Amino acid sequence: MKLRRSIPLLAVCALYLPLSQADEGMWLFNNPPLKVLKDKYNFEPSPAWLEHLRKSSVRFNNGGSGSFVSADGLVMTNHHVGADCLAKISSKDKDYVKTGFEAQSYSAEPKCVDLELNVLMTLDDVTDRVMSAVKPGMDSAAAEKARRAAINNLEKESSDKTGLRSDVVTLYNGGQYHLYGYKKYTDVRLVFAPQKAIAFFGGDPDNFEYPRYDLDICFFRVYENDKPVHIEHFLKWSEAGASEGELIFVSGHPGRTDRLDTVAHLEYQRDHVNPDSLNLLRRLEVLLKGYADRSFENARRAEDDLFGIQNSRKARLGMLAGLQDPVIMDKKRAEEKALREAVNKDPKLKADYGDAWDQIAGSLKTLVKIREEYNLVERGRAFDSELFSIAFRLVRMAEEGAKPNSDRLREYSAAGLDSLKMQLFSEAPIYDDLETVKLADSLGMMIEVLGADNEVVKKVLAGKSPRDRAAELILGTKLKDVAVRKRLADGGLKAIEDSTDPMIQLAKIVDPAGRRVRRTFEQQVDEPQRQAYAKIAKARFAVYGASVYPDATFTLRLAFGQAKGYSEAGQKVPWATTIGGTYAHAEMHGNKEPFELPKVWNERMGQLNLSTPYNFVSTADIIGGNSGSPVVNKRGELVGIIFDGNLQSLVLDYIYDDQESRAVSVHSAGIMEALRKIYKANRLVTELTGKNL
Amino acid sequence: MKLRRSIPLLAVCALYLPLSQADEGMWLFNNPPLKVLKDKYNFEPSPAWLEHLRKSSVRFNNGGSGSFVSADGLVMTNHHVGADCLAKISSKDKDYVKTGFEAQSYSAEPKCVDLELNVLMTLDDVTDRVMSAVKPGMDSAAAEKARRAAINNLEKESSDKTGLRSDVVTLYNGGQYHLYGYKKYTDVRLVFAPQKAIAFFGGDPDNFEYPRYDLDICFFRVYENDKPVHIEHFLKWSEAGASEGELIFVSGHPGRTDRLDTVAHLEYQRDHVNPDSLNLLRRLEVLLKGYADRSFENARRAEDDLFGIQNSRKARLGMLAGLQDPVIMDKKRAEEKALREAVNKDPKLKADYGDAWDQIAGSLKTLVKIREEYNLVERGRAFDSELFSIAFRLVRMAEEGAKPNSDRLREYSAAGLDSLKMQLFSEAPIYDDLETVKLADSLGMMIEVLGADNEVVKKVLAGKSPRDRAAELILGTKLKDVAVRKRLADGGLKAIEDSTDPMIQLAKIVDPAGRRVRRTFEQQVDEPQRQAYAKIAKARFAVYGASVYPDATFTLRLAFGQAKGYSEAGQKVPWATTIGGTYAHAEMHGNKEPFELPKVWNERMGQLNLSTPYNFVSTADIIGGNSGSPVVNKRGELVGIIFDGNLQSLVLDYIYDDQESRAVSVHSAGIMEALRKIYKANRLVTELTGKNL
């Protein structure tokens, strides 16, 4: 809460001219912050050092990060990243989330149903090829089509050639395009998970708080051809772990930042995106909490969704508070003013880039008008149901599959089809009661927002109340059966046309309405913004001449900083907690859920070295998506794992700060202490350290 | 959830022409449903019977109902009505809400800090005097002023003459005006409360559910001159209590219904009132839950607010679902169409009343435009703080006090000043941390809704973030000190003008902005609606010639019905539960909060007659505000106490149903069994029954 006071007003240009003393940035691996590292820390990572860290880093495609920690494909991530898989392979009678899990052999490692891991093998700048597809004089619609075709084709070519998952990534909001080639793993199995009660000790009340006491870890293993993979690059476990003041690196996949947004864009976020997201998140939180509170089994079914919602709600609140803080907005205004003045002073720059800011403001006026319909109809917020989402993608896949690759909607382009099908054909359990509750509520929301007399609303509801319509759809559809989905997918357009499945029929109602609003979005919002942000990126390079990192895009980035405490309201907050502090923290909260420790933690407390470092903070520049990122020292050894930021870090979406904002990690020594003394996880400890318990 | 299917389509006119078989209606005591009672139940209540019940009925001005149950001023209500007082006289170390309470003597009965009870002594129809104040040809502004003056004056005259609290009540949305004279009690003391764990057993998950197992009762005693009052009218306790199929009556204070609203008005509720209320309620629920979860003391501080919010959220969800159900809306449309056609067929009726519906629709167009500002600024939603509310009322009271009574805003008219001051000078605890959290959030909401560039918003925030501004205001104000409030109130306009208190200064910023939007509301929305609804009321009488009950207005009403089960999804739901069922219900939910019974309930289970009726349902027509209403039999004996409606009853705001909608009561025999065997409350039992344990 104290962030505002902690931003030195001097640092107005910090974002564009990284000061040598700031541990700022989510850097590209092909453009690392070599100068800052040399100047501030006298450290020069070699290309081999960087390659090793990159190839040891793993993206969890359900929204997190991780790293290889053994030659036999062992991967560590956070429990709250692994929880998605844990929940999907759990049932009423076998709840891995609650009880935790430990495999004693390869054969005892259960397979996740739809988890895809990626490792970034190749990076190429394809900006010219994407940019040159858009010819001078093309209108926005033609430009959007040409750009999309270029990207779809680039990905297809690469994937055909290399066999790698190939993604064209938009950087600097459209300033650059890079082609990433990922080694893809889809056979991922569970090795070890602690109980949620200790992994998420303190629950929602402690989330984004520090000091913390969480064992937020989870281990998986990657298989190929039904055997553990043997890999060259993995991180060596540091038994000592991070020490106070040490230079550390974080290699992970920050999901999204908006630091390069124009002021108009930030105001749009302040006035629309964040308030609307929060209303939706609160709505879902109250809905799911009401469902969960009715029985233990309901609680289990809704648990992972509910965590994600509460987590996002806290994050968004911090983001909105940042944008409602005049100090931050004034800083952003001053930055933009300085850049625009510099551009306007130079006739050439002015002619080339001067209109970019107004172009973005103009696109946002369109977006304000269409955003509700776009979110509800095209992005599916009005149809909060896994079964609807499956139906919708089946309908779209059939239609898009009938077109040449260059013309397809991005998410149905040839290069990504395998990953899409993996999601579509997932055997993850779907619960009718939960589906009905969510779908009924979201249909009701559609009436509230678009109005009962809206044509799409009327067609969707078919004269029924939201509750009755939702019940009818969920009970009537056969899409819970994966074989039915496969038959529809294989049958192409004809199968979709012939289908009498009520959910497929609903998707066919929604599809054209979604396409209509999407076209407006792509042609009048997204394409103009790409063009304008490309101009701003060039203007920024021209004016400041310095190296700038792009906003986060859920792709691999390198951050750095120090393991370091901070001061809050005059109080010193130490850099690390100890594993013994966990017990005092539980006691202080009456040992009641979510501060109730697993039994084994109380039974084996006496065996612990209570002063072992457990959770610690650092100045590394991270954000949501970095969960599970390895924290490594200069020798490239794993000294911790990122799992959270403190409350003060929530504005990092818009602006960096290193006074009070901190990344929060589990310490490698604390992890090892728990694995050895609490869990007596001999097999895992041996694999990680080469030593028995 | 099954309401829709349960409304017989035949009953289209049920509202206007009560069918003899429907137990419908919240009837005025000066216009009771004598014909239906005679026809259907062969029962003719005498004037004395009605007077006795009326004068035994008590209004709790914090939003509930109750009744006298002994000659010594003993009053019974629900625990969730009494909880407001319980919380205000509790502290961290003495939590009456959690532990319950039993006084063993008069001197041990603690006084509530700001509870006012009312008993309805006189009722007069003053429609002509109010209506005739508005002269033909007056524009809306003049009409509003004249009507307000007439009402303020009527109240003042009556209060001066009778010494009673005198309220002019608007009935039929403006069709009639009645003057109510209340005996007012302000020295109310706590006698007995069970633990919240049993009073609200099942918590939010079970709220509005049936079957139920709640001991939702609480006893107070009314004092005058520091002695228990001796009263003539109180209800005799029935030890047997209600039996299945028995005719019962409910005498209480239903808060609000909207059954006579036009279709345009209902659509306005569907599209604006209910969705906006729900967004606000969810926002507050998540905010307070986040605050409460941080410590036990936080939870205690927020408990009563949180209950109210969750309770309203469930109710509103049911109401919105009703309005989003085409069956209900089609029924409302058909009703309106029939009435309008009848009016339009008769030239005289058409000339006099034909334009009323369009008049209401027109007023709603204005309301849509101003409602956000009206709610945020004038109704204080942007300033969610007890201290702000005190400051605002002090500022207004000073200004209004300087005007002649006839010109004052309604809530500052002379007749109501004593009750207002009782609230203003309440010694109820105010918690700085909770105030700051709520005020910061509501200021943030004001930015979201009115925009950061709105002039009032800018003045209110004074260049600060919502969090900083809230902290500054709450820390800076001296209004927690009741003596400071009294000095300001006594000092009149001059004291307000001179005050440097930051909260008073904020109230002075808000006051003129609030008055501006309020004027628009009163002149362009409220006054035209009163005029139009008066026409519709007359048209309805002219067309249907039948007696119609007015919508609920938190004034005394008589409802009736049968103690009777129902069918839900083909399952029979019995009319009553037993006290023994409580234990099975706890067991089914793992005996975990909110299904964890108080220790004494487990210890003394063996002493109970487990088959004693405990909670029961009836067809009586009730709604929020009826909580705590006595349920009496034909002999006027107390056989139960209303505390809830089932989920199916949530649409009763708009439409009556007796197929599945049920009022839920605690049974008088179940109460007595618990008082005797669990609580061994000898003093209370003796006072209620004349018998020792």
Write up this protein.
Two copies of one chain form a homodimer. Chain A is of the alpha+beta class. Helices cover 48% and strands 14% of the residues of chain A. Chain A has 25 helices and 19 strands. In chain A, strands 1, 2, 3, 4, 5, 6, 7, 8, 9 and 10 form a ten-stranded antiparallel beta sheet that branches. In chain A, a hairpin with a 5-residue loop joins strand 17 and strand 18. In chain A, helix 4 (79-88) packs antiparallel against helix 11 (296-323) and helix 15 packs across helix 20 (482-498). The longest helix of chain A has 43 residues, at 502-544. The two termini of chain A are 43 Å apart. The model of chain A is unreliable at 1-20 (pLDDT under 50). The A-B interface holds A 1, 4, 203-205, 267, 270-271, 275, 278-279, 282-283, 285-286, 290, 293-296, 313, 320-321, 324-327, 444, 447-448, 451-452, 463-468, 589-590 and B 1, 4, 203-205, 267, 270-271, 275, 278-279, 282-283, 285-286, 290, 293-296, 313, 320-321, 324-327, 444, 447-448, 451-452, 463-468, 589-590.
Fold topology:
Two copies of one chain form a homodimer.
Chain A: H1 3-6, H2 34-41, H3 47-56, E1 57-60, E2 64-68, E3 74-77, H4 79-88, H5 96-99, E4 101-102, E5 117-125, H6 127-133, H7 140-162, E6 165-171, E7 176-185, E8 187-193, H8 196-199, H9 203-206, E9 218-224, E10 227-228, E11 247-252, H10 263-292, H11 296-323, H12 326-345, H13 347-353, H14 356-378, H15 386-401, H16 417-424, H17 432-450, H18 455-461, H19 466-476, H20 482-498, H21 502-544, E12 557-562, E13 566-568, E14 571-573, E15 576-578, H22 581-588, H23 599-603, E16 613-618, E17 630-632, E18 638-645, E19 663-667, H24 668-678, H25 682-689
Antiparallel strand pairs in A: 1-2, 1-5, 2-3, 3-9, 4-8, 5-7, 6-7, 8-9, 9-10, 11-12, 11-17, 13-14, 15-16, 16-19, 17-18, 18-19
